[in-house]
Amino acid sequence: MAHQKLRRVHNVLGVVFGVQVLFWMVSGLFFTLFPIEQVRGANLRQDISHGVLDLSDVTLTANQAAERAGIAPERAELAMFLGDPVWKLGTEKITHLVDAQTGALLSPISAVRAHEIAALGIKPNVGTPLTPYLLEANPPREYSGPLPVWVVTYDTTTTRLYIDAQTGELTHRPHPPLAHIRCLVAVPHYGRDWQGQV
Known about the structure:
alpha+beta, four-stranded antiparallel beta sheet, three-stranded antiparallel beta sheet, 5 helices, disordered C terminus
């Protein structure tokens, strides 16, 4: 009787470890056939040029911009955003975009600006970005960045792009169609960050 139980346990363990080894083999073959950049969607991105900063266009100091926007920042950085100079004014937990000419608070960015960033940050062959929607809670498993975030989909693919609603930065690599397969075959590689953040 004990011998039969031991044999049954041995068979079950053999199946469990056999399935695990099979997953390793399948995932290894998958990542051999598809470069990791393609699987992660890094090959879909392109650098965004917000323009060249001209200090003559900056009419407000960081303190003046912060005062007009009603912010008490701990750090300040001058940058370009969609062709206009902005101050990135940061507190302990959050960064605000403030127009360096008018002092207008640009954060959180609008859907229109998110759409423009989505068009600039992805290669043309991916398709045309559709209307972004704001995700404020319960993000999908593929996304582990800050919330709220603008989510942009495209007309010819299932690719999704994530844009930080506060700073307008791409917070995550594009989520390509292959990522769905990756989630299946990469299970044996738990503990590794296959998603990766931008």
